[in-house]
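Sample pair:
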Amino acid sequence: MVAVEHHVTDQKARGAYYTPPEAAAALVRWAVRDPDEHMLDPSCGDGRFLALHPRSTGVDCDATAVSSATEAAPRGTVECADFFDWAGSTTQRFDCAAGNPPFIRYQRFTGETRRQALKLCATQGAKLSGLSSSWAPYLVVTASLLRPGGRMAFVVPAEIGHAPYAAPVLDWFARSFADVQVVAVRRKLFADLSEDVWLLYADGFGGSTDHFGLSLHERFVFRSEPPIADTRVPVREWRRWGSRLRPILLPSRIRDVYEKFRDSDRTTPLGRVAGVGIGYVSGANDFFHLRPSEADERGIPRELLRPTVRSGRELQAGAITDETVAGWRADDRPNFLLALGAETPLPDPVIRYLDSPRGVEVRQRYKCRVRTPWYAVPHVSVPDLFLSYMSGEGL
């Protein structure tokens, strides 16, 4: 994997992790059928997709990346611009598109870029969730620039198979393309990233389909054509599984057993006997969770701080006791939530903290700005027990 020479945090902020060459070559082969076709890469980075097809146009907002792309693809056209601004004004239309859109989570995918992205999606009839990460509007807006019958071949996060905000994207693709295939890959395509990725192929823009093609592969292997789908997933079946593709990757016998137990009169869902939740979402963990020393230094009263479990690792001891909390205090750990309700009187030290430069920044974050008041973290409660999941631990 090759990346432009930027500090890693800047690279992460831009979602700029470049595609392995063999994967880029496969996706371009899937997308391009004729040498005269005009290909678009909406986030071209260093130009590795553009270099594989001379008649290409690439867009990127990073000047260094644009310079690299221009050098890599001298016969192509490279635009240094915000893709959504460019897409909103261009009159060009393309035969195909291939690439690896930036993966920026909604917390950092903000401001005018986000507003323009969601506006363009809405004009296409794609109403994306406020929790959508950047790749979702990149795909929809790129598709909107295709000529009738056009094709797309893209790297996508594996969460396209399960994230709620991915459902409107797949639903829109089913309504906009004659053929939609998702290629799930078990082994990481990007060895240095925690994020798993899959591949998306769509053909016949302007058409529609009543099913998705789904295939599962242990590892990525170069293919000159999209792999033949292992499973034909009717859109109605996909919706029956909560608009998620990931459960359908399970063998049918396992899904049958699951449905048998789920629908049995002898099975009681946990939600019927207990209130189950994932806890609270603060919207800015480093701001709302304080160390005792920091709270004391700022004069924030201790009665406004709640001890809290911030990580599943803190549950490995088997129980959270008064001694556990005392240990957190002694170790000066940031395990104390600033728990303010809508009616909580705010002492002057708390007001100063909320109005600090950091507080002014935090209140603009999505999870904070959509609640009233912005500093009141919702759904804070003391549970009777913790139930861990996806922890790798067995019972």
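Residues 269-395 form one domain.
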